[in-house]
Amino acid sequence: MLPLLQLSFSFMLFTQTLTIVAIIGSLIVLVCWGGFFMVQPNQAKVMTLFGSYVGTEKRNGLRWTIPFYMRKTVSLRIRNFESAKIKVNDNLGNPIEIATIVVWSVTDSAEAMFEVDDYVSYVTIQSESALRNMASSYAYDPQDDESQDIALRSHPQHISEILKKEIQERLGKAGLTVHEARISHLAYAQEIASAMLQRQQATAIIAARSKIVEGAVGMVEMALDRLKEKNVVDLDEERKAMMVSNLLVVLCGDRNVQPIVNSGSLY
Question: Among 56, 136, 207, 217, which residue is least crowded by beta carbons within 10 Å?
Fold first, then answer.
């Protein structure tokens, strides 16, 4: 009877031991299972342990790490940001409306996560601040047609490079890279838009008139030289001045001139 009791006790002890081992093993498996994580393309996992940064995983696929690591996902994809239209005074004090499109991405996920509170909001605020500062440093239009000064409207490529550089200086400390920055909207403010439009129209008219007069003078000179060369007619200074006046009226007029044919003697 006693050996039977001992055998029963040993079996119960063995069963309890197996149960404890199974429970411990299950707990270990569950804890280790929590260390698996997935990294998608163009993503990074920033890992910390008890508030300390321990590393970043950028390799794609299924990964495993110590289960106690806290993991935060940071997207490395290229993003677009279009600013709102802001009103600012240009270098000459004229109020203008301007907006920009910024193409950016995260290149240092640790700095983006820990250097700023919210890097997306940081991009928005700093881009608009850089745009405002850049717009106030240049004139909307050059002072004259022969001016070599950089202006917002006449040098779009140069202005884009300057804007990109200024935004990058602000975002670089947060681990962000600016790929492109371009002006998406540029216009005079409504309160002066009408006056500036008249100014632009007047400038265009003056430039066109200058070209017309220059061409007309050349044509008159050519006509007088050809008449003199072919000995078609011999004109005195008074008749020559009259001919020049008539030709300039015909060539420089806004409308077609109705000629008057003289059927009598020239003199």
Answer: 207
- Residue carrying the six token digits 């060539």: 251
CA angle (218 as vertex; 213, 220 as ends), nearest 5: 95
Cα–Cα distance, 113 to 243 (Å, whole number): 81
Task: Name the pairing type of β-strands 52-57 and 43-49.
Answer: antiparallel
What Cα–Cα distance (Å) separates residue 123 from each residue in 39, 101, 131, 134, 167?
Answer: 25, 11, 12, 16, 9
From the list 214, 92, 83, 195, the residue with the least C-alpha distance to 143 is 92
The tokens describing 109, both together, are 């996920």
In degrees, to the nearest 5, what angle opens at C-alpha 80 toward C-alphas 78 and 86?
150
In this structure, are residues 188 and 95 in contact, taking their beta carbons and an 8 Å threshold?
A: yes
Taken as a whole, the chain contains a residue count of 267
Q: How far apart are CA 109 and CA 72, in angstroms?
A: 10
pLDDT digits (tens, 9 = 90+) for 31-83: 666 677 888 888 998 888 888 888 888 888 888 788 878 888 888 999 999 99
Whether the CB-CB separation of 124 and 138 falls below 8 Å is answered with no
> How far is it, in rounded angstroms, from Cα 34 to Cα 67?
5
Q: What's the pLDDT tens digit per position in 191-207?
A: 765 666 666 666 666 67
**Residue 69 CB neighbours (<10 A):** 18
The top-scoring range by mean pLDDT among 57-71, 84-98, 155-169 is 155-169
Contact 99, 185 (CB under 8 A): yes
